[in-house]
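Researcher: Here's a chain I'd like modeled. Treat it as a single chain, no partners, no ligands.
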Amino acid sequence: MQRSIPQLSSFDDLDYPYETKKIELEDNLIIAYMDEGVGDPIIFIHGLGSYAPAWKKTIAGLTDTHRCIAIDLPGYGKSSKGNYEGSMSYYADVVKALADKLNLKKVTLAGHSMGGQISILASVAYPDLVDELLLFSPAGFETFTPGQKEWFRDVLSPRGVALTPVDALISNVGYNFYDFPKDAQFMIDDRIAMRTAEGFDLYCHQIVKSINGMVDEPVFDYLKDVKAKTLVVFGAQDNLIPNRFLNPGKTVEVAQKGADQIPNCRLEMIDKAGHFAHFERAEEVNAIVKNFLK
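Model: Modeled as a single isolated chain. Structure tokens:
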């Protein structure tokens, strides 16, 4: 029997695991975030099409030792919707503005997938702010030719995102995991439910802008300039990195190639885990993160 998934009138109706706070930055930009725990601050940056709740298992494992601030990027989740840039530099500047507004002088940045690419750029642009990096299946380690970049620009449109069939949504989310865990079902349910929310069209536009932003601002050549102590975590069975259509190969090869460029870097490959290794194997990954942050 098919489960009933509620329709949402607003992104604010999404059920978040922790209290949601909001802060206004320049140009009337409202950033939503969860702020839990005490100690040295970690700012968590989600991936493409995702949102702050995707970090809930990581937050739960770290709040006893750190202040965990998980944000919704502009256009995503409960943050304001509008005609925002999708460049990685823009997102990095938003993270810096948020840190300044919260009076944070030194932070650890934790980025997943696209959030990893943003974190890398932020650490290079603002080395005095970013003390440590936690990169989970980061985009940017894999490189693409001009022709491959054009493929990314052509493969998705805002209308295509908006009209993605339910079966495809379920498959797309499931493809992020080695063995889809039942407690990740909320990612599928929320993605289906938000189609009726006010601002959904702007969310779809933001996803396409973000894809173009990732393609147009590669970071591989900047990895050597990262000054922050860095932990890189990849699922050994990541289905998204490398891109199976464009660069078929082994995830570990991409992971090692990128990690080797970062001067002070530790790489951890998590077996029986996909693109969301920090969710799928949360206990193991949280233990690695805690050990690293010591």
